[in-house]
């Protein structure tokens, strides 16, 4: 039985990780931490866990977490996460980091986009990106995995095989993404109040969102190609789900059918990527670890559409999928039917 | 042209009051205040007013407000409102107070339910309650009007005529109310985040909500009768709208038809109360100043159903309706078609 | 391995039943039927099942269903269900009927409320009501189980123990219930179009809803007591979830604490009923088989609040829970963590 | 007083047109027609009009409509609209047609995209497109105005001035649009049921939507330039609102600032187009006739964002705005504050 700790248990990715791990027959959750811990039980903080997980929320040091757990799921904000991760690793335990701290390849890129000095920059460039569909070998051997961003997963999964096979141009690639509100986190802010967001649709972070360099960086890591990628995120009045509409130019002679076949072959044995013929809706994948995608042609352009649940395949499901790879479990445990 | 000031312009009732007053041909908005004023224009704080109301948000003292305005709409939190209201009144100007500070009849009741010493208790018991359907004469002459609570309006309007005519028992009266989220205000709180509230329905303040004594107090003021009133508010995942389902016992021999006729007669000339035969939905009255109501029998009980828009008839529309009464305007100006 | 058939697979209860059975290690879904079957696969009708359940939708006769399956989950409309159920039973196979056809105790009651002659009235009064919390023994031995209505489950579970222990009056009992829109089914109707229902809250079926006699009948069956029960259902703009607010009078000397303790004892070993101290929200139980409930006092009245997911504990989850009882499986298989 | 008729009064654009016209001091609604007319009053079909518009819904012939009205607002489906429009025009009365029948410039284009023979093709190419911001002179003199599509308005308004000034390339122009559900109409369909659409986001009509040729055709009509325009519509779980994210390439040396200034100048005196610096949300323009737009740069691309209310500026508000132009009224009557 693997002993798991949830570091920073107040937010949505922590809640979902707990939800999934409760279904995992090989994992026991032995700790849930919060800096605001006040002696409450987890089921007081999150009433949905009443009778399901009866542990206390504690304010544990990284050392205490490492002592108690085999693996920690770090659900802390970026910049706050890296020092905790580094300490746990130093105690010889494994970490899946759901923050953005270890996703990018270089200190320069991180500091340019996050505006702070990286607290543990030596591990950048050596930490696998937690997409088992692309990086399973590195994940299997890893002590630390950088769990992917939600938008990047929706863009990288359809683009990576097409880049690799040189079927589409890398300039321009236009990624128009739409996300449910849970992606904005659980900290009270005016911008995510119900009456601000409901019955409204808006773009944000146009030209400035940190997931743009993440997509470009990981595509380059996997394919060696640099994209001129335009990325616009939008907020949808719904809890969960991401849909990305991606506009690309096919190479001469390449058709939508070629692209669809390329994706089907590439993901033939991937249990959580479904290359479908219909237009996928986010509701088809809600509360699942699936990423559904399809291809359409529109004049001399190609439109790729992908959907996933931002909290599952876009966060906590990916984390549990990585755990399964790291411990050589069946990759679908806790993530699929039965 | 009446000069109006909006005191505390950051929240939803302020926004709606401005929206309505912009349609009022006899009123000019000359001031919008906020303690967080930082030199921004109103249209920066609320982009929907771009090109519609080009004034600065200012941090004005009550004296400055009084100097500049004929009437102030006070949209401050309870307890914070009374001192400001008192100062403006002392300068001889009129006030419509959208807080709860002047609604209850006695200092004791206020202090019991609000847990603070009333800063201007002498005016309690002498301030008309801003329901023109019941208290038009007092409102007409008033310097200060206490704008009603949203839930109380939905309960008092159907109950007052039936109490007055002694057609129903006053014990028990069960008011089961459901409100959209905007009623909870615009201050960021975990409980009103989109991803907490959306796809969820819950009760709150069971047995402890301050609108229970408000309903009882105002029904007593109008009819002289004291109700044993059970009140349960609920939060509905929608922006706006209140529906109250009210369970009462008819007096012997009284039928649903008698009650429906009583209400129809009572509100025959009230432009904003519609006694209807169909089951009203909140959507029928969204963004209007109407309160729709109907009567149904269910065995030996009667079910009254009323709907209104909590921000209009339940707040800002009522305030503008009071202004029309106070200045002897047509009661429907800015509130109805044309 | 038990072979299960889904009879009438186009609606929400069928979808959820499939979803749950896919997690059940002892059950295999071998048939999905629809009168509109046109050779499509189930994953074309419901894209969420792509890659998860690869069977064809067929237009099978009851005999063909019985031949292929050990147990049928009938998800047909009332009146249409009974003849199919009767035929399958005649072939010696078991049925869980998710329609209303076998819930009521007498032909008279059925025909009064459903307005049609019952096609198989002899089984009324002998068919267990599928609430294992109350009727496990009868369910265990049954060939046919009448799966409960969603509203009735939310009312019967909190009321039955209190009636049985004679802790509350049976007259009046006021049940004010609120349900998400999926309860209205998947047949296109004006009243359940998104733009009609969204941002609206309404009551319906006041004094005429068929779940009122169902609640009264089942409470009588379990406790021998007849309630004067007033029931008002409402439509909430959300997919799923029911909350019932129930107003009752305690017997002299009985307090909210007594009632809470009575419920806690009664449901001490029920894995899916959680008697909680906090005010439960429907979101706490979304996509789970839990019914959460609590007790509050309000003057001389008691307010009971219960929540459940109308499609799970209110329909398909209850059905799978019954299956587990009927086959002596662990009652939580496919319904709880792990 | 102008006598107006609403032809086909059951849908959302008819409801909104009535709503707006009730505020218009120069217009009286004298007829509301429906082929399903059964003697009901309008307020029975649409309860929100109770006490506001007390007329009967009638099944009138085009001749009867023309006899009674000065102008007809035709809210019929495409193909059904043209014959009615033609008949009313023949009686010498004016028509604003909210269907798609008269928007395109040629019979060929119409028949290619709508798949039916145009019943009144001679008027194509001679009917002004109802965007007063671009075609006020033609609208002023017109007997018939083709009211614009909702998506096209959101794309044409930002693009037309930039095309005209040759500030951006016309190949490619990528229009990624998102609309609330009311745009899909009020006819019951599985795809617009609440429980299908809520908590879901999806693309539809990729590469095949009829608003793509409409945008291209009207841009060509106004600027003489042909765009290679890629258009993808999406469905947002909200009632109303459209946001279009438009990706274009600036001409060499042209910056986002140049584009923003061009738009500001062009729309300087347009009362309903607001060129703003912030990122507009659909909520800023809900229930108004405004189209808000802004410009952002993103690498070597430009992102234009526009928002409008699909039922107001995207349909009924545009129609009333055209009426104001046609009768030389102040262009903002019934559409703006006061």
What's the layout of helices and strands?
The structure is a homotetramer of 338-residue chains.
Chain A: E1 2-7, H1 12-21, E2 27-33, H2 42-45, E3 57-58, H3 62-68, E4 71-74, H4 81-90, E5 94-97, H5 107-114, H6 132-141, E6 144-146, H7 150-164, E7 173-179, H8 194-197, E8 202-203, H9 211-223, E9 229-235, E10 242-248, H10 256-266, E11 273-275, E12 291-298, E13 301-308, H11 312-326
Parallel strand pairs in A: 1-2, 1-4, 2-3, 4-5, 5-6, 7-9, 11-12
Antiparallel strand pairs in A: 7-10, 8-9, 10-13, 12-13
Helix pairs in contact in A: 1-11, 3-4, 6-11, 7-9
Describe the structure.
- Four copies of one chain form a homotetramer.
- With 338 residues, chain A is of the alpha/beta class.
- The first copy, chain A, folds into two domains: 2-148 and 314-326, 3-Layer(aba) Sandwich (Rossmann fold), CATH 3.40.50.720; 150-310, Dihydrodipicolinate Reductase, domain 2 (2-Layer Sandwich).
- Chain A is built from eleven helices and 13 strands.
- In chain A, the strands form two sheets. In chain A, strands 8-9-7-10-13-12-11 form a seven-stranded mixed beta sheet. A six-stranded parallel beta sheet of chain A has the order 3-2-1-4-5-6, sandwiched between helices.
- In chain A, β2, α2 (42-45) and β3 form a beta-alpha-beta unit.
- Chain A binds chain D through residues 172, 174, 176, 178, 180, 196, 198-204, 206-207, 228, 230-232, 234, 236-241, 243, 245, 247, 279-283, 286, 296-301, 303, 305, 307, and chain D through 172, 174, 176, 178, 180, 196, 198-204, 206-207, 228, 230-232, 234, 236-241, 243, 245, 247, 279-283, 286, 296-301, 303, 305, 307.
